[in-house]
Structures are given as structure tokens and as C-alpha cells.
Model the fold of this input.
Amino acid sequence: MIHVRHSAVAAVPVDVAFAYIDDYRNVPNWMFGVSEFVPNGEFDQGLGATFDAAMQIGPSTLRSKLEVTEWEKDRIITLSSLGGVSNSSTWEFTAVDDSKTELSVDFAYKLSDGLAGKALGMLVGPFVENAVRGSEETLRRNLEEEFAARGKS
Done:
């Protein structure tokens, strides 16, 4: 598995950060390339919830099914693929203080073994790193703007 890790601090309380990320309706607003993210099953959050996702990469749309495999309120959310390219993303939330949260993401993926997989990894790796960083920056900005707007109303 190849891992891309990134962390940053958002100027919002931990419960606000967790609730925003845990709401599937927000995912296309901050996750790089995601154009669809819809529940597929009885639950739309928490352990065992499944989602159908679509990601735009250039002219192509990649579809996948994801399952929440780890979920603890205000602490951690892990989504894992149920097919296709093996991948997972884990978001961890750590309260820095009452008004700041450290957001940490670990995105892991596995490409095919052998020379072709290694060559593809050299091409895909920088793209994934930029996508993870861009997603975190957009997420942090959205969180802080939404939280500030709520404070004014």
C-alpha cells in the first residue's frame, strides 16, 4: 500500500469539523474530483454505511463503492473501497483547543504488482499528493467560512 499523509489545523471546534466531514452531502464540495457521493443502503453515516462515488479525472469518470469501516464520533472516519482500485482514506480529528481542530488524513492505495504498477505509481503518486493537499485546503476553508457565517447569524 502507498500512503499519502497530510495534516493541518482548522479554526473550528472538533465537533463542527467532524459533523461537516461526516455529512455525505458535503463531500463533493471539498473532496478533489468527487462529483457524486450518495448513500447506498439503509445508513448515510456511521460504521457500515456504504456510498456510491464518482470522481472526475480529466475526461474520465471513475466510479467506486465505499464503506465506512471505522467511525468514532469527533475522532475518526475511515472509508474503504469495496471494489476496483484498493484504497482507503482515514480522517482523524484532534482538538487543539476549544476553537481549533487538527485534521489529519491518510490516503492509502494499492496498484498492481510488477513493473507496470511501479511505473503507474510514479505517475499517480504526485497527482494523489496534490489531490489530498487540495482537498484538505478546500475543506479547511469551507469549514472556517461556514463556521464564521454561523457565528454572524
Q: What stands out?
A: The helical segments are 14-22, 27-30, 114-152. Residues 114-152 form the longest helix (39 residues). The radius of gyration is 16 Å.
